[in-house]
Design goal:
- The complex is a heterotrimer of chains A (570), B (276) and C (185).
- Chain A is an alpha/beta fold and 570 residues long.
- Chain A is built from 24 helices and 20 strands.
- In chain A, strand 11 and strand 12 form a beta hairpin.
- The longest helix of chain A is centred in the first third of the chain and has 18 residues.
- Chain B is mainly alpha-helical.
- In chain B, a hairpin with a 2-residue loop joins strand 1 and strand 2.
- The N and C termini of chain B lie far apart (53 Å).
- The radius of gyration of chain C is 17 Å and the shape is globular.
- Chain C has one domain: Arp2/3 complex 21 kDa subunit ARPC3.
- The chains are: A alpha/beta (570), B mainly alpha (276), C mainly alpha (185).
Chain lengths: 570, 276, 185
């Protein structure tokens, strides 16, 4: 094995503002040229671990360190953040925050500028790097002209330009649609192979990262390393389950079918998996599981007829869209970044006015109703809860919409308390919002919409940035609301979400509806998947490889079974 | 909320080809000259040059029309205000009074007042083309480099660049937040009671501020990780190197500036007095 | 490791100026007095000056106001731009002098009073005295006119910062306070 490049020894770190250490007694060695994945639920300390490696801890976030961390045999405490950044290049999770230049070229050059490199030399280096990340034709483009994947490639270019040895990716998949995420993982892999870099990826989406091989997976939970082994070994253990990390779906299916997963099965990728030994068990499980009943149709609650819309004259973001949602449905709206999903949601809520076409609520036309009027029928929950929260106390935040509508005080109290109970926030009702976690804040924003008693709720990326546990919590909660009769629409690019929770999916590409079918059918249709930048589910591949004649039904049965299992989680 | 904002207009013209730093220097000299002088001859001379350069820049008038209309309205109101507050200002400056006609009391119309207000307006007309041109012919990328070149600390120059970079993002946040709050019944413009309107404003401003403070955190980290502030200097990817035309332009501007100051203060007064 | 302006301050100036522009452009509240608006952006400026200190406050005012003028009017009214910088600078300076430590989460009666004393004095001098003086020096506009304008602006901005600015500071301070004594009910 090659020489160690990062070495944690009995390393403990406590943030200044906290009582307990976030990282406890970490012992970890990463070797030159290795590709390592670090997974862990939210709050496990995995981001802190990343900050230790790139120097933000302790130089930007102060705290107490015991033990040692060396990079290239140098003790990091004795370096400064600039020297560390010569070894470690970090691609941050939020591309809008990392992209600070006004154009692609400028952003790639940022670190060269700080090093006082002469302009001519700088321009040459930027061109070289831009070829590597396939952006050489976009050097003059500004951030706003780029797709999510391109932004991330620029971020990567911006750190590669320093010729660092170690590339650190902090949740690289968080802001990408599934197909783009897949390409990102492939690009990272290519660069690691070609240039022999050490690559560290922090993610909780294990299956997506394992799309390309990694040498080791480190599982961190509660500030401690609970596993440090190869992907094949890890998937054969029970560590993931006990750390609340989602296992690859095909692995889960194999486990449900009663297969013993061992490293010899090569379970780290669906294509390398030796399925033959499991085939019979999978078939038997399929035969024995229940067939799923189709959902009954009810009356339409929301429909759009030939709606077109453009933000500017001559531009059309939404082109002649028609669909109808029935009362009590859960529907996901999916498609590429920028395909028009969010615009569609805004049109439904009246944030934007349609150019042509009509919108109906039950039988009543609401095309010209104001935002305010529609809010009592259709509520929208924004992706970022911080964009909605304006009060200090939970009670005040949730009651805001009622107060502005002049509802009597006694009724407000009653309605808010009822809503808080539904949302599981009642015990916190007198807490300041700033004391809540991100997921709890999300609930507060849902509660503040719910209190207006809309019959339809639209959620923009309801589970973005959530780990598996919080994802399940939020989605089960939404399902609960749905059982109370609320119709739910979700704009998302989370394949798991759409597969598991939304029986029906509307697929949008270039402002048009290209499919309106069951989510399982969408995710097993190769052509649709390509067109809308989605990703085929590995369950489908598993079913095919196991020789099941009705792979779609297999996926259906798995989803239903899995949800039952997860319901009895602690 | 499709409010137009003035921004860079791509054209291939001699003005566009100049380095941003040159344009900044010229703009500053030009503004200073126009601020200092009240000499009608100097102002007219500067005005003619301003218009000529504007024409050279190939910027179409209609691209900046929305701004010009706004300025014209402002100037009109300003002129009315000046007259209402001080109808005899011209008389006291120029020392004579050629009454054209009387209105009421101290409100009459004198040649001196007209001439004085003509000069004020002319001052704006000298500065406006220069300012407009500087804004629409300098690429934002070059802006920070230009500031740094004329001696502004690179950190402050970069702060300006950050502001330009993030204005669209903040605008989008603002829009999202105000839409979300409108759905809950919060509105700034409607005929709410005044105090309610203030409370509503806070419901929109506060989330914007708090999310912007989060942004500061993320961006600071990103910049720190990429070595910002490491050295006492920094180079600029987008800086345009000085060429001969830049030196000539600066030289000519300095001469014009000096001449206008000399002519203006030659007789000890900032005003040119045709009434003597 | 002191290398002059801290990165966080640089970024605060940049983002602060951007927010200044957006609030100045889109978040003016019409008042019952015709043709006058409450410029919420000055309340934001005061908040930033208290959080990030005089230098950041001054530069946010200066850069923000200059950019706002430039992109909305295509010209820069230097006299008023300079005063925005002045107001940002001295509210930040005053807050420091009076030991207002907003990050500690304390912003009670005492701090509210000192903050408002500071902002009243600073804005009265800025808008009421310096801005008109600059207008006279630069444009030789009539004294009466510019002073009436200045006093009106001073009054309106003092009220804005006094009401909205104070409320923003109180709200911000609350987000800073540690709340470890919370129990579920």
């Amino acid at each position: 094995m090659s020489r160690p490049i990062i070495r944690f020894k009995d390393f403990t770190f406590k943030y200044r503002s906290q009582k307990e250490p976030t990282l406890k007694n970490i012992n970890l060695t990463i070797h030159e040229g290795e590709k390592v994945l670090i997974v862990g639920p939210s709050g496990s300390g995995k981001s802190t671990l990343a900050h230790c490696i790139n120097g933000l801890v302790p130089f930007a976030y102060e705290g107490d360190i015991t033990g040692s961390l060396t990079i290239n045999n140098e003790e990091t405490k004795e370096l400064d953040i600039f020297s560390i950044s010569k070894y470690v290049g970090t691609v941050l999770q939020d591309p809008d925050g990392q992209f600070i230049g006004l154009s692609v070229g400028e952003d790639i050059a940022f670190s060269l500028e700080n090093d006082c490199v002469e302009q001519q030399e700088m321009k040459e280096q930027v061109v070289d790097i831009s070829k590597l990340i396939d952006m050489e034709n976009k050097l003059h483009a500004s951030l706003h002209e780029l797709s999510g994947g391109q932004k991330q490639r620029v971020s990567l270019g911006g750190v590669m330009v320093d010729d660092v040895d170690i590339l650190l990716f902090d949740e690289p998949l968080a802001n990408l649609d599934p197909a783009t995420g897949k390409h990102a993982i492939e690009l990272i892999h290519d660069i690691q192979q070609q240039m022999n870099k050490t690559v560290i990826i922090i993610e909780h989406r294990l299956e997506d990262v394992l799309h390309c091989p990694v040498d080791r997976v480190i599982v961190i939970n509660d500030g401690e390393i609970v596993s440090d082994t190869t992907p094949d070994e890890l998937l054969s253990s029970t560590v993931l389950e006990s750390s609340n990390i989602r296992e690859p779906l095909y692995v889960k299916a194999l486990k449900y079918a009663g297969c013993q997963i061992t490293p010899e099965l090569r379970p780290s990728h669906i294509d390398t998996l030796k399925i033959d030994q499991c085939k019979e068990k999978v078939l038997a499980w399929y035969e024995s599981s229940e067939q799923q009943k189709p959902i009954k149709k009810t009356a339409p609650i929301l429909s759009m007829e030939n709606v077109s819309f453009g933000y500017r004259d001559g531009e059309s973001t939404i082109k002649n869209v028609s669909f109808s949602i029935d009362q009590g449905e859960i529907v996901s709206i999916v498609g590429k970044n920028g395909a028009g999903k969010s615009t569609l949601a805004k049109l439904i809520c009246g944030f934007e006015k349609v150019d042509t076409g009509k919108i109906y609520y039950h039988d009543q036309e609401i095309t010209n109703d104001t935002i305010h009027d529609r809010a009592e029928k259709i509520g929208i929950v924004m992706q970022n809860p911080n964009h909605m929260i304006s009060k200090h106390m939970i009670f005040d935040e949730v009651s805001l919409g009622l107060v502005t509508r002049g509802v009597p005080e006694a009724e407000i109290k009653q309605r808010v308390e009822d809503t808080l109970k539904i949302c599981g926030l009642y015990p916190f009702r007198n807490w300041p919002i700033s004391a809540l976690s991100f997921g709890q804040k999300k609930r507060v924003t849902i509660a503040s919409i719910l209190v207006l008693e809309p019959e339809v709720i639209i959620l923009d990326e309801p589970t973005a940035g959530q780990d598996f546990k919080h994802y399940t919590e939020i989605m089960e909660f939404l399902l609960e609301l749905n059982k109370r009769g609320i119709t739910i629409l979700m704009v998302t690019h989370d394949m798991h979400l759409m597969l598991e929770y939304t029986p029906r999916a509307i697929v949008i590409a270039d402002g048009q509806i290209i499919a309106d079918r069951s989510a399982v059918e969408v995710l097993t249709d190769h052509e649709l998947v390509e067109q809308a930048n989605l990703k085929e589910t590995s369950l489908f591949t598993l079913a095919l490889r196991a020789g099941i004649d009705e792979p779609i039904e297999f996926v259906n049965r798995f989803i239903a079974y899995d949800r039952e299992v997860r319901k009895i989680w602690p | 909320m499709a409010v137009e904002m003035l921004s860079y207009i791509e054209k291939n013209s001699p003005v566009h080809r100049l380095s941003g730093a040159t344009k900044l220097i010229v703009f500053l000299l030009w503004s200073s000259a126009a601020m200092l002088t009240y000499d009608t001859r100097v102002l007219l001379f500067l005005f003619v040059i301003s218009i000529t350069i504007f024409w050279l820049s190939k910027v179409a008038l209609r691209d900046v029309a929305f701004v010009l209309i706004f300025i014209l309205i402002f100037l009109l109101l300003n002129n009315i205000a000046i007259y209402l507050f001080s109808p005899q200002e011209g008389v006291s400056i120029y020392g004579t009074s050629h009454v054209l006609f009387e209105i009421a009391g101290r409100y009459n119309v004198t040649l001196e007042q007209l001439f004085y207000q003509f000069n004020i307006t002319l001052k704006y007309f000298v500065v406006i083309p220069a300012a407009l041109l500087f804004i629409v012919t300098t690429h934002p990328s070059e802006f920070a480099a230009s500031l740094n070149r004329i001696g502004v600390s690179y950190k402050i120059a970069y702060a300006v660049s950050l502001a330009l970079r993030y204005i669209p993002d903040i605008q989008r946040d603002f829009r999202t937040i105000s839409q979300a709050q409108q759905a809950r019944g919060i509105d700034l413009s409607r005929n709410e009671k005044f105090f309610t309107r203030i409370k509503n404003a806070i419901s929109i401003i506060l989330p914007l501020i708090l999310s912007s403070l989060d942004r500061i955190e993320v961006i600071s980290n990103a910049m720190e990780l990429r070595g910002f502030g490491k050295k006492k200097k920094r180079t600029w990817y987008s800086a345009k190197p000085f060429r001969r035309s830049d030196y000539i332009t600066i030289f000519v501007s300095v001469i014009i500036f000096i001449l206008s100051v000399i002519i203006t203060f030659y007789d000890g007064s900032r005003f040119y007095n045709p009434f003597l | 490791m002191n290398r002059g302006l801290a990165i966080r301050t640089v970024v605060a100036i940049g983002i602060g100026a951007a927010v200044y522009v957006i609030l100045g452009r889109f978040a003016a509240i019409p008042t019952p007095v015709p043709n006058t608006s409450i410029h919420t952006t000055f309340a934001f400026l005061a908040l930033m000056s208290v959080i990030f200190g005089p230098l950041a406050g001054g530069l946010i005012g200066l850069i923000g106001h200059a950019l706002l003028d430039a992109i909305s009017y295509g010209s820069i009214w230097w006299s008023w731009v300079v005063i925005s910088g002045f107001v940002g600078l001295f509210i930040g300076y005053g807050a420091k002098k009076f030991n207002i430590d907003i990050e500690s989460g304390v912003f009670g009666k005492k701090e509210i009073i000192s903050f408002n004393l500071i902002q009243i004095v600073v804005q009265l001098v800025g808008w009421g005295l310096l801005a008109p003086t600059l207008d006279i020096l630069i444009y030789v506009e009539p004294n009466l006119k510019v002073f009436v304008q200045g006093i009106t602006a001073a009054a309106s901005n003092i009220v804005t910062v006094g009401v909205i600015g104070t409320l923003l500071l109180v709200a911000y301070a609350k987000t800073r306070s540690q709340s470890d004594s919370l129990t579920k009910e």
